[in-house]
């Protein structure tokens, strides 16, 4: 007895709908895995019929291999000749052709070398211009700093002059170095003077007399 017709309709209950969808998804995955395994076993373990390659195709492949091998050997021989090896078997015409190839290669190498040198010189000129601009900026900044320093020094000099005019030295001491507690520098002959006992001459006068006698002597 066959299965009856299934009516497609939306499952209103959310839980029943999720359960039904999960069952159908698991069933489809299981069926897909089974089919994949069957195909794998069929390809691996079932003997496949051998396809006979036509003889003319085999012959053409063989000829193609021979051509490629000969071309490879010719390229290797040319490379050795360009490097200066195995030049003995070459005749005059082949040597002339080789010389032309070398001259053409040398011209191309020199052109490439000149191009690289020009590019490097252009880069150096660009760097030189950048350094020149930077030097100008630093010079302008340094000149500004020098002007500010000169202005500061002028203001400092004016302030120092004003302070000296407001606070003059005491007239009794025109030179601060001539105070009583400082040693006096004597120019001339230095004479040791010993005061006699009971002498009534003051020390300052004795020093002056000693200084005069020493200078005269």
Task: Please give a structural write-up.
The protein is mainly alpha-helical and 217 residues long. Helices cover 69% and strands 0% of the residues. It contains 4 helices and no strands. The longest helix is centred in the middle third of the chain and has 75 residues, at 92-166. The chain is flat, with a radius of gyration of 58 Å. The protein starts with 13 loop residues before the first helix and ends with a helix.
**Please, how many helices?**
4
Shape: flat
Assembly state (oligomeric)? single chain
Unreliable residue runs? 167-182, 189-217
Tell me what portion of residues adopts beta-strand conformation.
under 5%
Q: Supply the helix-strand structural class.
A: mainly alpha
- Computed Rg: 58 Å
Average of per-residue pLDDT values: 74
Report the span from N to C terminus.
163 Å
The total beta strand count reads: 0
Helical residues, percent: 55-70%
Largest sheet: none
> How do the SSEs run, as a string of H and E?
HHHH
